Fold this protein.
Amino acid sequence: MKKIQKLIAIGALTASSSVFAHAMMESTFPQDGAMVMEPTRHVEVNFDMPMKLINLKVIGADGRPIAVDYERAKEAGTHFKGMTPVLVPGNYTVHWKAVGDDGHMMDGTFGFMQH
């Protein structure tokens, strides 16, 4: 009887932990810390679960924002791409903000060097 109770408890804990799981950043382009040798004209953020991207900014080494052409997500998705002008050599920081289907707000940054 105790074994059955333990199995039920373990099953309940496992099921409840997946209900409360939040999306995670899966990958970016360029990768965080990358030195990009070829000229790039876009940045990407990829999640492991559907999210709505609500903000995407690229900041140059001088602290000024770079124009990013992206559509604020109306529908949840896992892959988002923002187009930029051709980036001149320098360091860049990408700031993003997204919200999950559960209303959980996430934000983050990644950086790269355009060589």
